[in-house]
Structure formats: C-alpha cells, structure tokens
Inverse folding.
C-alpha cells in the first residue's frame, strides 16, 4: 500500500499520515523533515530530490505527507494507491496551525526536523490564508483530481476525515 497525503498547510496532513503509517505498519516520510534543516534552513533541492528518490526506490509500501512539487511529486502521485487530499477551509487550517503552535510551543514536533521549533509567524499565517491557496495551487490540486481521480479521496472537513479513518480501521 502506498499513500500520498497532500493538502493545505495546517490541515493535518502529518497527523493523518502518521496515523495511517502506524495503523498499517508502513514506512513514513514527512517531507517537512526532508525540506528543512535545523533552524528552519532550507535543504538544497538536489539533496531533497535524492532523499525522496532513495526512499521511493527502497520501499514497496509507504506513506508520504506533503506537497513539495520539487520532490518527486509526479512519481509519488503515479505510484500511490491512494491520494488523500485534505482540502479544509483556510480558517480551519489557520485554527489548527494555531492549536499546533500552542501545543508545541518551544518544541519540535515529530513531523519536522529536530531544531525547528514550532512557530506561527505572520509569514506562515499569510501562507496559510493566501499564498498556499493561489490560483496555481488550486489548478494543481484540480489536475491531480482529474488525472488520478479514481484513487483520490478529497476530504473537506473533520467529519469526512473521521469517516476516512473508520474505513482504514475496517480494511
């Protein structure tokens, strides 16, 4: 089983990805861990691509969370048996990011590189509300749904996410 989890910042991609990986005993890759080096420094693109490519090449099953188009994005979408697209409203994502920032204040959460302490600054708020939902981003999500529609599960609220989790428990 190969599962790609994509969607807006703050919607819970890492949480559901970790839950599925644990439930199914699948290798898990958080792309935030690949992208960020200690102290919120971005890793060079070539290095990111190599890490993700090696992960894909060395695992028959996996769960990968994150968008990151420069990290074998199309390959991940093609190889995935299921693509979970978390498409929560922007204010819900902002609220979830705020809750996460409160929970992990001064700490590093498990889905990101050690030394990247949790933060919710104005730049990230702007990303959650606007930049991450640009016309280009919307078009890309629509393209994925058209091209891979039979394996995409679009989740727009907590009730739908809970329903999806129940499906994972049953199967």
């Amino acid at each position: 089983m190969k599962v790609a989890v994509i969607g807006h910042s703050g919607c819970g991609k890492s949480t559901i990805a970790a839950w599925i990986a644990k439930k199914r005993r699948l290798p898990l890759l958080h792309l935030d861990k690949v992208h960020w080096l200690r102290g919120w420094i971005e890793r060079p693109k070539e290095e990111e691509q190599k890490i993700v490519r090696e992960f894909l090449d060395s695992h028959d099953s996996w769960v990968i969370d994150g968008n990151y188009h420069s990290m074998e994005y199309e390959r991940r979408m093609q190889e995935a048996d299921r693509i979970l697209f978390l498409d929560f409203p922007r204010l819900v994502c902002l609220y979830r990011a705020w809750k996460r920032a409160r929970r992990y204040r001064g700490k590093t959460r498990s889905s990101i590189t050690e030394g990247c302490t949790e933060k919710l600054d104005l730049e990230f708020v702007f990303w959650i509300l606007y930049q991450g939902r640009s016309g280009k981003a919307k078009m890309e999500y629509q393209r994925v749904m058209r091209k891979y529609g039979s394996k995409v599960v679009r989740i727009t609220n907590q009730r739908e996410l809970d329903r999806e989790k129940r499906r994972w428990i049953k199967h």
Q: What stands out?
A: The chain has a mean pLDDT of 95. The beta strands are 2-7, 28-30, 36-37, 41-42, 62-65, 82-86, 152-155. DSSP finds eight helices and seven strands in the chain. The longest helix spans residues 45-58.
